[in-house]
Design brief:
The protein has helices at about 10-20, 25-40, 55-70, 75-90, 95-105, 115-155, 160-190, 200-215, 220-235, 240-260, 275-290, 295-310, 315-325, 335-345, 350-375, 375-385, 385-415, 420-425, 425-435, 435-455, 460-475. It has about 475 residues and is mostly helical. Helix 7 runs antiparallel to helix 17, helix 11 (about 275-290) packs antiparallel against helix 12 (about 295-310) and helix 14 (about 335-345) runs antiparallel to helix 15. The longest helix is centred in the N-terminal third of the chain and has 43 residues, at about 115-155. The chain is globular and about 60 Å long. It holds the Pfam family Chromate_transp. It comes from Apiosordaria backusii. Keywords: Cell membrane, Membrane, Transmembrane, Transmembrane helix.
């Protein structure tokens, strides 16, 4: 078949007609996207529309290290919002619809989504090696800080009143960061690509997923199920969609009747009965492979292996590691570094402790690097597949329900404090700890107001610094 080439002048005119002025504000860019989506056959927004700069390896490392690694405060939700704001809304590497497709795909892959997104953009800029460099640049600051925090914890622990006072003030501030970031992500995840209007079915997917979490239905079931249900809804197949919706609760009711409510211990495989280096690596590897949707699914697995079945890590120490991971600029799965350090430190060897932290971290991040880098081309095809587009839309809507519930759980824990610590204290100290709920709630509200009022990238860092200082006045006896 012969190919007909357009005259040079005509091709230039076509390019100019599609070009978006880089000085246009994000609102004009969004309007342009909407106009293009409405007039093109690609109304699902699956075309590339890429504007990706080609960076050297050194430039790429510094770009992701400085823009995301150093400022990845607030956990995975805040990190994803930061990446989207910088690379999609401001720098416009890719279009917003394409970002939503990519984000949806990474929701069903093991590993932290923020690190995977950095690797994805690194691949776009400099190939697979660029993806590895971008991922390392994003993870490195948090890993180093967690190593330092683990070492300091082994020296002083949270019994140090000065450190504990600052940390108590940081918890509600981090909770506010996570809730604000949840709002940012949800703002685009429940909208139709063609009209930009809110899709009530995606809102229902988010709400029902949150309800399922309250019923202790596995989040993997909810994510996959609402992806399939929304696929039927998008094609107006109402009967199959309604049937699946009803069957999920019928199946859960039957399970509870015959098997009872699922127990957290049922997740344990017994692969880390002792915290040897090989066991810690395997624990990280399995937890990383099972961490679909990020750290929120890795946390319960590591807990049952290390705390419940292996019993080599106290519950209070495990919770401390989760809390530290929430305030560091790193993927939340970096809590595994803390677990590996404390577990390997049982023999009193600091060298073995650092080795344990390294091997469990390598195991935790290996699956996400493998799937993202090795499967980059396949993922690119997936995010362009129109047949799968509505499935990913439903999945992304359901994810909003998951992260909203997690945000509320973190809020509750950050305001009320660690209950197990209160139970072990005398009455006077328990009353003092209870009195801290009021100031913690006030800090949360103030942080939320600041986050909604100011959008500078340094806002989160300043809040953390100010919170650490305020804790010395609010929570120090």
């Amino acid at each position: 078949m012969a190919t007909v080439l357009a005259p040079p002048d005509q091709k230039k005119a076509d390019v100019e007609s599609q070009r978006v002025d880089p000085v246009d504000p994000p609102q004009a860019y969004e309007k342009k996207l909407t106009s293009d989506a409405g007039s093109s056959s690609d109304h699902m927004g699956l075309s590339d529309n890429s504007n990706v700069p080609k960076l050297s390896y050194l430039q790429l490392f510094w770009f992701f290290f400085y823009n995301f690694g150093l400022f990845a405060w607030g956990g995975p939700v805040a990190q994803i919002a930061l990446i989207k704001e910088k690379l999609v809304v401001q720098d416009r590497w890719i279009t917003l619809p394409r970002f939503q497709r990519v984000f949806s795909v990474y929701q069903i892959l093991p590993g932290p989504e923020a690190a995977e997104l950095c690797m994805f953009f690194g691949c776009l800029s400099a190939g697979r090696i660029g993806g590895i460099i971008a991922g390392i640049a994003f993870v490195l600051p948090g890993f180093v800080l967690m190593l330092l925090a683990s070492y300091l914890y082994s020296l002083a622990g949270f019994e140090n009143k000065y450190f504990n006072a600052s940390f108590r003030a940081l918890q509600p501030i981090v909770a506010a960061m996570i809730l604000r970031a949840t709002h940012k992500i949800a703002d685009h995840s429940v909208r139709k690509h063609d009209t930009k209007k809110t899709d009530p079915f995606l809102i229902m997917a988010a709400i029902c997923t949150a309800i399922n979490m309250a019923l202790r239905i596995n989040i993997f079931i909810s994510l996959g199920l609402y992806g399939v249900i929304y696929t039927f809804i998008a094609r107006r197949l109402w009967i199959p969609a309604a049937t699946l919706f009803i069957l999920q609760y019928v199946g859960f009711a039957l399970y509870v009747v015959f098997r009872g409510v699922p127990s957290p211990v049922s997740l344990a495989l017994g692969i880390a009965k002792t915290p040897s280096l090989i066991n810690l690596f395997v624990l990280g590897l399995v937890a990383g492979t099972l961490s679909f949707g990020g750290a929120y699914t890795a946390i319960p697995f590591v807990q049952v292996e290390a705390v419940l079945m292996g019993a080599w890590l106290p519950q209070s120490v495990f919770i401390d590691g989760i809390a530290i991971g929430n305030i560091l600029p790193a993927p939340l799965v970096i809590f595994a570094t803390f677990v590996g350090f404390q577990g390997a430190y049982l023999d009193g060897s600091i060298g073995n402790a650092f080795a344990g932290a390294v091997v469990i971290t390598l195991g935790m991040f290996f699956p996400c690097f493998l799937f993202t880098i090795a499967g980059h081309e396949l993922l690119e095809k997936l995010v362009r597949n129109k047949f799968l587009a509505s499935f990913f839309d439903g999945l992304c809507g359901a994810v909003i329900g998951v992260i909203a519930v997690i945000a509320m759980q973190i809020l509750k824990a950050s305001v009320e404090g660690a209950l197990d610590r209160v139970k072990e204290k005398p009455l006077g100290e328990a009353i003092t700890a209870t009195a801290q709920v009021g100031p913690a709630a006030v800090l949360y509200m103030l942080a939320l107001v600041v986050l909604y009022k100011f959008t500078n990238k340094y806002t989160a860092l300043l809040l953390v610094i100010m919170g650490a200082v305020a804790g010395q006045f609010l929570f120090l006896d």
